[in-house]
Amino acid sequence: MGAAQTAEPPQIPAHVPPELVRNLGITEGEEFLAAPHKFMAGLHDSQPPVFFNVSPTHGGAWNLINYEDAFFTLRHPELFTTAGATPFPRDPNNYFYMIPLEIDPPDHRKYRNILDPMLSPRAILALEASIRELTNDLIDKFIDKGGCEFTTEFGRPLPVGVFLKFMGLPLEMIDTFVGWAMGLLHSQDRATAGRCMMEACAYLEEAIKEKRANPDDGAVSAIVHAIVDGAPIPERDAFGFTFFLFIAGLDTVFATLNNMWVWLAENPDRRKEIRDNPEKIGAIVEELLRVFSVTFSGRTLTQDYDLHGVQLKKGDKITSILPACNYDPKVFENPREVNFDRPRKPVLAFAGGVHSCMGAHLARLEIKICLQEFLRRIPEFQLKEGTKIEYWPGGVVGPKSVPLTW
After folding, report:
1. Which residues neighbour 394 within 8 Å (Cβ) at sequence distance 6 or greater?
2. Closest by Cα among 212, 192, 225 to 394
3. Are the CB atoms for 69 and 79 separated by under 8 Å?
4. What is the DSSP string of 31-59?
5. pLDDT tens across 261-305, in order?
6. Predicted structure pTM score
7. DSSP labels for 100-127?
8. CA distance 379 to 393
């Protein structure tokens, strides 16, 4: 996730060796924004497995780029807590936790249980027909035009439309909602992030009141009316849970699809390979998720810890650069190659451990359906002539615009 740019450069703790300090511009530097996934894959060629990042927006933290290190970190909350893991500005006098992300075991499971039945593989499969229908409805609107702006005409309305229906929030407010998410996740301006935070919070507080008075079958209503430890969920916890889902669900699949379609537009032979091998769709989705993962994962050390001979201290921040971890050459042979026959290995596109993404099954289904239906109906397409892909700064990696023609 992203954060507004800080006014002061991060302080370097005394225990950090000077030779491990880096300012690589991760998430906002010119080289990163020119080709983010190429940049993150290249970290394995130029950087140690753990280094201290002092970049303006994600600085003041140890960064991990090895798959096994991230895998371990994500699965040991007793050593690496998620408390305070997200840097969104919050009123200290009316603080809320991003639930369930910032709640560690054993309490984590109590909150996760609220929505798990709605996000189980069986529940998600029940959505397949409606997602496929929405996918084709969107394609119907531009298929005869000879082109589209993929990000706004498909990449955004498909996953966000599905998400808002799941949440029980009004689809007609999609542009407002996305605007708030973009301001929080990608703005390099503190004032913009603060305004978006204030407006989103005000809206969600009213939405929660409405769901409390008028329950429905959406996720917000399920949260508001949940029972935790035998009692109604505390009001501030209900808000924190709703806010976290709202922000997390508006940008990640959107960014992932945009990344994938840039690659598809540039690789007609690989589009044909996908169309010609429908039985491989599961493996195809996993490989594209590996190559085009979009998020980072932050933790805080609960005790001193030695990692590769580097002394980390209690209270230190750690960020696993998950896209880089998915390019780890020790785990994935020829990691920059898109190989649909690659031996299966869990990818870290959805983090992992107890805090793995609740919406992972839904995201996979959406990507599968998008690939199947778009390539079936529009098998030949390319980037609009003269297009230069530019990327948003911030902690969700995706292009600003993907103009297609056919």
Report:
1. 2, 3, 27, 28, 57, 185, 186, 187, 188
2. 192
3. no
4. HHHHSHHHHHHHHHHHS-SEEEE--TTT-
5. 999 999 999 999 999 999 999 999 999 999 999 999 999 999 999
6. 0.92
7. TTT--TTHHHHHHHHHGGGSSHHHHHTT
8. 31
